[in-house]
Amino acid sequence: MPGSRKEQAKPRAKPAQQKIESILDRHQCDRGMLVAILQDTQAEYNYLPKEALVEVSQGLDIPLTQVYSVASFFKAFSLKPRGRHLVHVCLGTACHVRGAVRILDEIKRKLGINEGETTKDLRYTLETVNCVGACALGPIVIVDGQYSGEMKTDKVKPLMESYK
Ligand code: FES
Asked: Could you read off the pLDDT of 81-114 as tens digits, one per residue?
């Protein structure tokens, strides 16, 4: 029953419980707000940790499988830890013909990870996208929403190093 967990005795809440309780309170424990609740949860942790999803499931009194199903349906959600900096390489047609694969390979080499992965120090997560609507500036690399156009392999190192 939504909202009922407030009445339960809680001897000592764990940090994940406190954070999720606060998010659930913000959304009045409304099951219809599951996507928004997961967005807020991801904003809190930078990904969706299992213990947080368990708290959401219990707090909304819905099956954990349902929470996972929504969390894995939307590409914007990540079930794995993500880096402080999100690096996107555009592999759309215009960027591809202008050498985007070479840029991607250089970033992989520099960071020591493949696309979809995060560096061990949780500094960078590398992903690819298909066309971000700036084809004339290709190849494009986007770090934390900042576009870098006309990328060249020798610009990769300074660009990556500018994000601590
Ligand atoms: S193909 Fe890369 S911005 Fe369009």
From this structure: 999 999 999 999 999 999 999 999 999 999 999 9
- Using the mean position of ligand 1's atoms as its centre, give its distance from the Cα of residue 159 in Å: 19
| Ligand 1 centroid, distance to 71 Cα (angstroms) | 27
Report if residue 7 sits inside a domain. no
Query: Helix 34-45 and helix 64-73: axis angle, to 10°?
Result: 70
Q: pLDDT of 37-58, one tens digit each?
A: 999 999 999 899 999 999 999 9
In the block, tokens 């409304």 appear at: 30
* Pair 52, 103 in one domain: no
Cβ of 129 closer than 6 Å to ligand 1, yes or no, is: no
Mark out the alpha helices in the chain (DSSP H runs).
15-26, 34-45, 50-60, 64-73, 93-97, 100-111, 153-161
Domain count, the chain: 2
Give 70 Cα–ligand 1 centroid separation in angstroms: 29
Ligand 1 within 6 A of CB of 138? yes
Q: Is 2 a domain residue?
A: no
Question: 100 CB less than 6 Å from ligand 1?
Answer: no
